[in-house]
Q: What sequence folds into this?
């Protein structure tokens, strides 16, 4: 991939940050909802509608709480991966959003240097910034100029 190429989808590095345990599987329309328990140090890096990789499969977060999260596995992913075949209580490797971790790290470092940034406000700022970055990236990917420039 060249630095001038258009990015699409999730950025996954293949780094295992921790593990989660499958707690339930439920059918919802054409999708399968997988719910997992995970330690707070993992879920704190998760953002609703943000990316997550489970055993290397890139998915989108549907729900996030302090110690749990859920993903919706669409038909395409069901047909091309084995993630929906996991038995309940299966342990999976987890990788969270690298962009989110970079933003959180930068805000945390600023707060620790005494810049007067409260941690709760920092978290809201991080989420807002990530959502804005995703929105701009999606808009750029859909623009005719982007398509013409990047082929």
A:
């Amino acid at each position: 991939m060249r630095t001038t190429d258009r990015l699409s989808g999730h950025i996954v590095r293949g780094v295992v940050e921790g593990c989660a345990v499958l707690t339930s599987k439920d059918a919802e329309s054409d999708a399968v909802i997988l719910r997992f328990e995970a330690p707070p140090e993992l879920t704190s890096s998760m953002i609703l509608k943000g990316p997550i990789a489970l055993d290397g499969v890139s998915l989108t977060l549907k729900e996030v709480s302090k110690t749990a999260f859920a993903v919706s596995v669409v038909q395409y992913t069901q047909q091309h991966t084995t993630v929906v075949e996991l038995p309940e209580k299966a342990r999976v490797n987890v990788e969270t959003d690298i962009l989110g971790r970079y933003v959180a790290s930068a805000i945390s470092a600023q707060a620790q240097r005494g810049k007067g940034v409260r941690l709760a406000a920092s978290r809201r700022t991080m989420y807002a910034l990530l959502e804005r970055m995703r929105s701009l990236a999606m808009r750029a990917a859909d623009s005719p100029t982007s398509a013409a420039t990047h082929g």
Observations:
- Residues 16-96 form a domain with the Elongation Factor Tu (Ef-tu); domain 3 fold (CATH 2.40.30.20).
- The chain has a mean pLDDT of 79.
- The radius of gyration is 17 Å.
